[in-house]
Amino acid sequence: MKKTIVALSLLSANGAMAADLPNFLDQSDIDNAQFKCLGEPIKYSKADQKYVDTLWDETLSYLKAYAIALTNGENSHCLNSDEAMIDSTLGGQKMCIMDRRDMKLMVKNIYQVINNADKAKQCFGAREEVNWIYNPGGELTQNSPVAQHFKRTTFGEFFKTKVTNKEVKKLGKIFTENFYKMVTGGEVKMPSAFPYDISANALPNLWAAAGWFPMYAEESKRNDKNFDNIRGGYAYAEIFGHWGLLRIDEINGEKVGAEVGMTVQSVNTLYPYHNHAISEIYYNMRVPACTNQFKSFAVRADSPLVKTVKQDTTMRRVQFDAAKHNGHTMWLAGSYDQDPLMYFHQNTIHAFDIDGSCEAKPEERAIVSVWARSNAHDKRNDYGTTLLCESAQNPGTPANKDEVIQCDLTHLKW
């Protein structure tokens, strides 16, 4: 209750969000920051503006808590920084996440927004006109006046009309019917680095009205390397970023690379081995139903375990033997209170294995995460693209945990 009260107290007026700065930020970079939006500012009617304001206040609360968590060193061995797992192999590796320049820039951008909220708000909108992001529907919408006001196609309609694979359609229906239970309740809990709750329990309008994308559900060549249960049981929403509600191109003349939002992945699923040339982080927000329920795999592109088999001017094809006799030790468990933060450098190969066998009602449960990418403005690399790995023995099909996997990594441009 105390955390909820703190969160609500931050939602009063836009100007009230201004925050004390971490000592690695320069006050002169924050004060009177200048914003260049992606697209033209949207003019809302008085009736619409009421709901936009509610969504904006919850967005500011979300972003502020996120910045505070990333710079919170109270429960780590870091100074002014949370600690993140970066590689699960070879016994596991961690780092102080704020040692990364891209993380410092993302946190700076968030403080520039919350300390200049009135100016940043011109780049904010409900995005109801975007036809490829969706409303989960059900109880989440019923509990959100904002989601009810700004109409979107619902998950139910999406899986019924835009998905052709019968198995994915069936799994998507189950995902849709249980989405509210997946993202709310006592099983969803914030890591201790957060100053207050920013889950759907505390910010119901933001989670309902952000605009969700079931990114693997529709047919695509990429999905030849995917599993049906992920295709029908995964979605993400973007709050701050090029495709989100708050769309900022530049602050003080510098490009903004932050994409900040949330992800939901059903239990009893393996998010396949994949990679992208954009750095990415996750904060786990789930209480596990059993030990080692949420396992993550990550191996960096320069690991001695990764072997190059082919390369050209744009791509480096690599293989990794996940079938080694000790392969299970290369997956590390995490939860809201056990190593909740993960940071994946560019081209890190990673995957998520979510066990549902210990859940009383697995169809109602998922792993819920606060998610971000930090340098997504760099369009020379694979901006916005997730590359799925494949079975080395059977290319073009998804790789399982007990075989040699093959991945195409992007040649990064600097």
From TrEMBL:
Keywords, in A-Z order: Signal
Record InterPro entries: RmlC-like_jellyroll (IPR014710)
Source species, domain of life: Bacteria
Signal peptide segment: 1-18
Gene3D superfamilies: Jelly Rolls
Entry keyword Signal: yes
Name by which UniProt lists this protein: Uncharacterized protein
Species, as recorded: Shewanella baltica (strain OS155 / ATCC BAA-1091)
